[in-house]
Amino acid sequence: MNTPLPDVPEVRVVGLPQLTQGFDLVERLDLQMHLKVHGPLEPVSGERLAQLAEEISLTGRGGAGFPFGKKLRAVAKSAIRRGVRPVVVVNGSEGEPACRKDTVLLNRAPHLILDGALLAAEALGARTLVVAVTRNSTEISIRAALAERGLSDRRGQQLRARVVRTPERMVSGEASSVIRAVNGGPALPPGRRVRAAESGVGGAPTLLSNAETFAQLAVAARIGSRRYAHTGLESEPGTVMLTISGAVARPMVVEVPTGVPLRYVLQMAGAPPQPQGVLTGGYHGNWIDAAAVHESVVSKASLAAVGGALGAGAILPIGPETCPLGESLRVANWLAAETAGQCGPCKLGLPAAAGGLADVMNGGGPAALEALREVTQAVKGRGACKHPDGSARFFASTLSAFTDDLAAHVLHGGCGRPTTGVLPLPLPGYEEAEESIPSGEKIFIDWTLCQGHGLCADIVPELIRLNPDGFPSVADAVVPIHVQGAAQRAVRRCPALAMRIEKVDSPAAPRPSRPELPSSSRKELGSGRS
Predict the structure, then answer these.
(1) Which of 24, 32, 272, 303 has its CA 20 to 30 A from that of 176?
(2) Quick one: pLDDT at residue 428?
(3) Quick one: angle between helices 387-401 and 350-361, nearest 10?
(4) Coiled coil: which residue ranges (predicted)?
(5) Per-residue model confidence (pLDDT) at position 80
């Protein structure tokens, strides 16, 4: 059984709604209904907006959890120092199969997200707003919302706004991938870590944050920090949006104040009374057991204290009737297939880890388990983006959370339970990015000819970097189709004629070799005046 989540699942709320206010009235709040429900919103100065974010302890809701006020100040400082106008980017790219909270907000409350983004743009003096989305429904909704406000990308407007579509992939939602896509490139991490606050869209300082983060900012700007803090924990005030799926009777997105017991939220969705395990934070998160569920509340600190993670707000319980290692293997295979193919830890390490987990499950014994631990450890901290680290976290958590099942598979050849496939994954044939398709070619360098000119690293940095000695280091990876042209230019422009491209035998995708087990102005801020 594998049932992907719909774009907009059932939405519930615990306590008084903030982000989901008005959801009981209409399916989607257009601008007129949005203003009736939430009221008008006046601009806020940059300093006051940063203070507001700090007073409510607002952090990014996309998983990284970086303080929003600190990010806002960094962008403002960089823009002033460089004398350029910054750019504001709403990251609505939600490529993880277990997450739907941002999709729900973009579909049902797009103007609340735009309120927060336009507040930030007004405060920073930005003249460009970009909204990145992954799905048809979100693109349609946000384009309609921009049109309702009279915003477009036409020249001559005080603020130009546009929508950028990114592929529905795990790596496409990372901040660097979004910025690269906005700049006209592939939605893949560039491999070079450059702070968006310094150089983002078009090289300008860029404020990029998650869709829910901007919606939370809009709520706080309306009601003030004191009233905002009346909801939730003192240390983590406000509400959070959670996506509950897995072994539940009713998959849902729920808005819940911080501090609410996690077991209560799971009961709302119809989770098993004693789950075998609960995956917290999504597929880059951590497993916790039933005892930890009863000890924890919905908050970053509480979940971290029991070995969990809030992350992007995905919570996935599994029941006692399924094999937890089999469920994890399904996710591991998907994570390995989601590789950007740009570095060894991602292209080689993740498929090897997924294959190692399959070996353990198929009776490989202690040697297979030790090999799996080694390859998981080797992946950490070496990737060109965060995908290998997040995936390694998932592997390590699986090994530590299900020790009894692990012993049963290692020592006795299995646990005797089937894999029922309760964790949502995309169905075969879901939209895949062209960037993920390998060309079947590799770059090779003749070291007897190479003179270290370095032009190749400038032309195709996705595959070639310069070592400290000035000579190139070539990734041992098949050239993806989206950089095939750049790779050919690098070969042609090498002054020493030291480079060549050759066809190699490669699989259609970097999947594990082991088989998967069965299974603005005031108007722009929302006044509505023309």
Answers:
(1) 303
(2) 65
(3) 20
(4) none
(5) 95
CB atoms within 10 A of CB 529: 9
Q: Identify any residues that bridge with 500 across adjacent strands, giving them in sequence order.
A: 444
- Residue at 343 is within a domain: yes
Do residues 134 and 281 share a domain? no
Q: Give the SS3 label for residue 240.
A: strand
Work out the pLDDT band at 514, boundaries 50, 70, 90: very low
Pair 123, 173 in one domain: yes
Report how far residue 370's alpha carbon sits from residue 10's, in angstroms, rounded to the nearest whole number. 42
Instruction: Give the structural domain span for 263.
Output: 231-318
Q: What average pLDDT does range 328-348 have in this prediction?
A: 82
Q: What is the pLDDT of residues 79-99, one digit of tens each?
A: 999 999 999 999 999 989 999
d(CA 215, CA 401): 35
CB 252 within 8 Å of CB 314 = no
Instruction: Provide the CATH number for the domain around residue 107.
Output: 3.40.50.11540
Same domain, 91 and 166: yes
CATH number of the domain that 327 lies in? Answer: 1.20.1440.230
DSSP classification of residue 306 = T
What are the beta bridge partners of residue 320?
none
Whether the predicted pLDDT of 437 surpasses 80: no
The answer, yes or no, to whether residue 375 has pLDDT greater than 80, is yes
**Rounded-to-integer distance, Cα 89 and Cα 242, Å:** 22
- Token pair recorded at residue 210: 């998650």
Residue 113 has a pLDDT of 98
- Sheet strand arrangement including 87-92: 160-165, 128-133, 87-92, 206-210
CATH (domain of 480): 3.30.70.20
Percent of the chain with pLDDT over 90: 60
3-state secondary structure 465-525: EECCCCCEEECCCCCEHHHHHHHHHHHHHCCCCCEEEEECCCCCCCCCCCCCCCCCCCHHH
Boundary residue ending a domain (269, 293, 318): 318
Pairing state of beta strands 87-92 and 206-210?
A: parallel
DSSP state of 42: -
- Whole-number CA gyration radius for the chain: 24
Question: Do 104 and 73 have their domain in common?
Answer: yes
Global confidence as pTM: 0.80
Q: Is the pLDDT of residue 438 over 60?
A: no
In a domain, 11, yes or no: no
- Count of C-beta atoms within a 10 Å radius of residue 289: 17
Asked if residue 194 and residue 266 are part of one domain, the reply reads no
Which stretch of 261-275, 453-467, 491-505 has the lowest confidence by average pLDDT? 453-467
Q: What is the pLDDT of residue 435?
A: 39
Instruction: Please give the pLDDT value at position 527.
Output: 40
Alpha carbons 455 and 443: distance in angstroms, whole number: 14
Burial 480-518 (b: 16+ CB within 10 A, else e): bbbbbebbbebbeebeeebbebeeeeeeeebbbebebbe
Q: Is 122 in contact with 95 (CB distance < 8 Å)?
A: no
Residues 208 and 281 in one domain: no
